[in-house]
């Protein structure tokens, strides 16, 4: 499962992940809600609490620890411009607890590859940009960064160039071609530097109009079956300019839900292949058992021709396939359960976060979308 950040130079990709990492890298338990918080949550139609824990493996762990420490200093110090493509191996724990019970927390562990790249690659402006875009092409889902300040301050030509819209469109089209067995193609838009939008009274409307015109409408009309998740994010406080993360969890959650759901379909398909192989082996074993009863001579000839494979050999292979199929089915069901919990939370907190999901150009309830799958 591979999630890639996608976006032009200086749109806030590295700052996003460093800030998210700061928020979710220490292992914490979900906070217990008091009675008033529970009432409040229920009043908003929330039935689940969710938590995220992420740890990074290897050299990049130190880099991101430093970036996240610097961001939280006063004033915030941003990470250096990325010069290549970084693939981070993430260990992710998703936690859920039913609101109202304050009891059991269920936890799901997953390994996810996570890609941060030099935005200059989308403008063919860094060494190795071809290698970088080829690597990006292997992602299962993109979190596409749209820098809100470019929408607010630039004229359309400059803005499209600055945001790398041409390259982003190409990448998403290629993803569409790749994921043909998947009914719905999920696209996540993180509208970054949203702190700057909040100062502009007309800001949000202009950002949404832009996304509708450039992405939501064209993709929905061309393809159908596109689920577009739009989420405003920021790492700064609009008033003080200090470090203040907003909504960082949600683009990751939606993207993870999408890749986990896709994985569940792939595992289900694998389970069906293993079942078919199991049936094949059982049929072979049965043929040999029948021969044993009917004709020792034919059985002997088969032995010679096929290298002494007995009914037991085939039966034991059938048993292996049966065990594998059971494991695949269990993993597939686990992924489906996780995806539906993730998307339930995305939906239940949409009013609080201001994140919106569109299916075929219309605003939708993510839970209804899941039921359609
Ligand atoms: N106002 C505001 N500025 C931000 C925010 N996040 C990032 N920035 C600014 O954007 C600059 C670029 O951020 P990066 O995270 O390095 O962007 P990037 O997309 O990783 O850029 P490349 O590595 O060049 O591709 C930072 O140096 C900050 O000045 C934000 O939430 N709000
Ligand atoms: Mg960067």
Tally of separate domains:
2
Corresponding CATH superfamily of the largest domain: P-loop containing nucleotide triphosphate hydrolases
Total strand segments = 11
- Each distinct ligand: guanosine-5'-triphosphate, magnesium ion
Structural class: alpha/beta
Helical proportion, percent range: 40-55%
DSSP helical segment count: 14
Strand arrangement, major sheet: 2-3-4-1-5-6-7-10-11
Radius of gyration of CA atoms, rounded to a whole number: 25 Å
CATH class of the largest domain: Alpha Beta
Q: Please describe the biggest sheet, giving its number of strands, its sense, and whether it closes into a barrel.
A: 9 strands, mixed
- Share of residues in strands: 15-25%
Secondary-structure element pattern, one letter each: EHHEHEEHEHHHEHHEEEHHHHEEH
- Low-confidence segments, given as residue ranges, are none
Which fold name corresponds to the CATH topology of the largest domain?
A: Rossmann fold
Describe this structure in words.
- 54% of the residues lie in helices and 20% in strands.
- It has 373 residues and is an alpha/beta fold.
- The strands form two sheets. Strands 2-3-4-1-5-6-7-10-11 form a nine-stranded mixed sheet, sandwiched between helices. It has a two-stranded antiparallel sheet with strand order 8-9.
- It has helices at residues 13-24, 35-43, 59-71, 129-136, 148-153, 156-163, 165-178, 194-197, 203-223, 249-294, 296-306, 311-348, 350-353, 366-371; strands at residues 2-6, 48-56, 85-98, 105-117, 141-147, 185-192, 226-232, 234-236, 243-246, 356-359, 362-363.
- The protein folds into two domains: 2-263 and 339-371, Rossmann fold (3-Layer(aba) Sandwich), CATH 3.40.50.300; 267-335.
- Strand 10 and strand 11 (362-363) form a beta hairpin.
- Helix 1 (13-24) packs across helix 3 (59-71) and helix 10 (249-294) packs antiparallel against helix 12.
- The protein has 14 helices and eleven strands.
- The model has no long low-confidence stretch (mean pLDDT 91).
- The protein is elongated, with a radius of gyration of 25 Å.
- The protein starts with a strand and ends with a helix.
- Bound molecules: guanosine-5'-triphosphate and magnesium ion (MG).
- Magnesium ion (MG) binds at residues 13-14, 81-82, 116.
């Amino acid at each position: 499962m591979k999630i890639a950040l996608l976006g032009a130079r200086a749109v806030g990709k590295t700052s996003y992940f460093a800030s998210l990492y700061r928020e979710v890298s220490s292992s914490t338990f979900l906070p217990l809600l008091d009675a008033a918080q529970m009432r409040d949550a229920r009043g908003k139609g929330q039935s689940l609490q969710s938590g995220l824990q992420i740890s990074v493996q290897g050299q990049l762990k130190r880099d991101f620890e430093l970036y996240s420490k610097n961001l939280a200093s006063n004033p915030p110090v941003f990470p250096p411009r990325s010069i290549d493509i970084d693939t981070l191996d993430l260990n992710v724990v998703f936690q859920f607890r039913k609101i109202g019970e304050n009891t059991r927390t269920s936890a799901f562990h997953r390994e996810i590859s996570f890609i941060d790249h030099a935005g200059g690659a989308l403008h063919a402006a860094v060494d190795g940009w071809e290698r970088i875009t080829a690597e990006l092409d292997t992602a299962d889902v993109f979190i596409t960064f749209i820098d809100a300040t470019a929408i607010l301050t630039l004229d359309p030509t400059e803005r499209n160039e600055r945001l790398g819209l041409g390259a982003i469109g190409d990448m998403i089209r290629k993803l569409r071609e790749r994921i043909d067995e998947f009914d719905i193609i999920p696209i996540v838009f993180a509208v970054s530097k949203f702190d700057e939008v909040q100062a502009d009274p007309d800001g949000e409307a202009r950002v949404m109009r832009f996304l509708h015109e450039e992405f939501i409408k064209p993709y929905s009309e061309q393809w159908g079956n596109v689920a577009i998740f739009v989420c405003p994010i920021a790492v700064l406080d609009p008033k003080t300019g200090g470090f203040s993360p907003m909504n960082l969890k949600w683009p990751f959650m939606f993207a993870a839900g999408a890749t986990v759901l896709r994985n569940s379909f792939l595992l289900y398909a694998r389970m069906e292949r293993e079942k078919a192989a199991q049936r094949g082996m059982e049929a072979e074993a049965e043929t040999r058992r029948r021969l044993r009863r009917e004709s020792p001579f034919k059985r002997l000839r088969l032995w010679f021709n096929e290298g002494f494979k007995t009914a037991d050999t085939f039966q034991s292979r059938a048993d292996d396939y049966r065990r594998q199929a059971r494991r695949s089915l269990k993993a597939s069901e686990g992924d489906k359960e996780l995806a539906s919990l993730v998307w339930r939370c995305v939906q239940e907190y949409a009013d609080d976060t201001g994140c919106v999901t569109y299916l075929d150009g219309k605003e939708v309830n993510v839970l209804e979308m899941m039921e359609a799958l």
